[in-house]
Amino acid sequence: MGDMGRVAKACGCPLYWKGPLFCGAGGERTGSVSVHKFVAMWRKVLQSCHDDAAKFVHLLMSPGGNSLAQEDFIPFLQDVVNTHPGLAFLKEASEFHSRYITTVIQRIFYTVNRSWSGRITCAELRRSTFLQNVALLEDEVDINQLTEFFSYEHFYVIYCKFWELDTDHDLLIDAQDLARHNDHAISTKMIERVFSGAVTRGKKVQKEGKISYADFVWFLISEEDKKTPTSIEYWFRCMDLDGDGVLSMFELEYFYEEQCRRLDSMAVEALPFEDCLCQMLDLVKPQSEGRITLHDLKRCKLANVFFDTFFNIEKYLDHEQREQISLFRESESEGPELSDWERYAAEEYDILVAEEAMGEPWEDGYEAELSPVDQKLSALRSPLAQRPFFEVPTGLGAVELYEYERGGDDLPPS
C-alpha cells in the first residue's frame, strides 16, 4: 500500500485514488498487489470505464454491483485517515476513526445520493463535486478547508452535538433526547415525524424508537441549513403526513397549532393561521392553489423561512424580527459566501474551543473533572498547527460503520 501513491500518479489519477486502486486490485484481501495483477485490473478499468466517475465506482464497488453502498467507502476513507497530514493527530486516537468515517460517509450520501436510494450511481457521482474534493486532498494540507465532505472540525461539531444528547452514550438517541437539541427549539410534532421513518431508512436505522449517529448527521445538517436540495426534501418528507407529495392546508395547520401554543406560553401573540397561511403562500407562490409541492419549495429561495415557521420556534422568532427584504437580499446574494451549514459549524466550533479555554465551570461554581471521553475530545480539538506530522502507516484498518459496543465512560475502540 505504501507504493500506491506513486502508482496512482503514474496512472494519471489523483493521489488519494491510491486506496481504491489498491482495493480494486484485491490488495485489501491479500495485503499486497503484484504488478501483473494490477496491470490486468487497470487495463480492464480503462476498457470498460470512460470517465473518472465510472472508474471510481468500478474500483470501490462490491463484486457484481454497479453502484456504491455506504460500506464501499470505508477502505478509501480509512486510507485518508491514515495518510492525510491534516488528520495526523488521529494516529493515537483510533477509536475516533470510525466516528469520523461514518460522518464523512453520511455527508457524501447526503450530498451525492440525490435519489435517496442508499446507493450512489455513476450518474450521481458525475453530477456532484465529490471527485473534485478527492483531488483537492492531495494539495490541501488543512483538511478543515475541505468543508463539503472532509472537514474534521465539522465532524467534531456534529459529534459533540450528538454526545450532548446521547446521555447514556450508547450511540443511539430517542425522541426525548433529540427534543433537547437547541433548547427544545423544534416542535414535538416534528420530532415525532423524524422518528416516524419518513426520513430514515434501512434495517439498522431505527431500533426501538431510537435513531443512530448516522441519522443524526442528516438531521443536524438539515436543521441548520434548510436551503439545500436534500434538506428541503428532508423536511418536506416530514411535513407530508399522508405521503401524497403535496403539503395540504390541513398539514400546515397541524404543525402550526403547536407553534401557536408555544408562542402563547412565551406571551408572544401568534398570527392566526389564516394570516400565516397568506404570508406563506405569498412567500412560496405555489403553482397550484391550495397545495405546496416539493418543486414549489425548491423554486422558492426562502424555504428555510417556510419550514421554521411551522416547527422551529427560535428560528421563526428570529425571522420575524428581521425584515423580509433583508431575507430576500440574503437569498439572492452571489459569490463564495459561507452556506448556513458552514457558518453554523464555524460558530459552534469556536464556541467549543472557547468553552475549553475557559474551563467551562459547572453551575455550582466548581470546575468539573474531565471524564476520559472529554479528555480525549479536548485533546482532539487542538488546532491544526499544533498537530505533529507522523510517519504514515501502511495498512488499511477495518471500520464497522454502524455497530459499536458500549464501553463504559470512554469511547469504545472501532
Structural notes for this entry:
- The chain has 22 helices and 4 strands.
- It has 414 residues and is mostly helical.
- A two-stranded antiparallel sheet has the order 1-2. Strands 3-4 form a two-stranded antiparallel sheet.
What composes the largest sheet?
2 strands, antiparallel
Oligomer: single chain
Radius of gyration: 23 Å
Widest sheet, order of strands: 1-2
Total number of helices: 22
Roughly how many Å apart are the termini? 21 Å
The structure class reads mainly alpha
Helical residue percent band: 40-55%
DSSP strand count: 4
**Structural shape:** globular
Residue share in β-strands: under 5%
Question: Which regions are unreliable across 5 or more consecutive residues at pLDDT < 50?
Answer: 361-369, 382-414
Mean pLDDT reading: 85
SSE topology string: HHHHHHHHHHEHHEHHEHHEHHHHHH
Quick synopsis:
InterPro entries: EF-hand-dom_pair (IPR011992), EF-hand_13 (IPR041534), EF_Hand_1_Ca_BS (IPR018247), EF_hand_dom (IPR002048), P2R3A_B_D_EF-hand (IPR048855). The chain is mostly helical and 414 residues long.
Q: Which keywords apply here?
A:
53% helix; mainly alpha; calcium; two-stranded antiparallel sheet; 414 residues; EF-hand_13; disordered C terminus; globular; protein phosphatase regulator activity; EF-hand-dom_pair; 22 helices
Which helices and strands occur, and which strands form pairs?
Layout lengths: L3 H7 L7 H7 L2 H4 L4 H14 L3 H9 L13 H10 L13 H16 L9 H6 L2 H7 L15 H14 L6 E3 H5 L8 H7 L15 E3 H12 L4 H11 L6 E2 L1 H17 L7 H12 L7 E2 H6 L3 H9 L1 H9 L2 H9 L7 H19 L13 H9 L34
Antiparallel strand pairs: 1-2, 3-4
Helix pairs in contact: 1-2, 2-5, 2-6, 6-7, 7-10, 7-13, 10-21, 13-14, 18-19
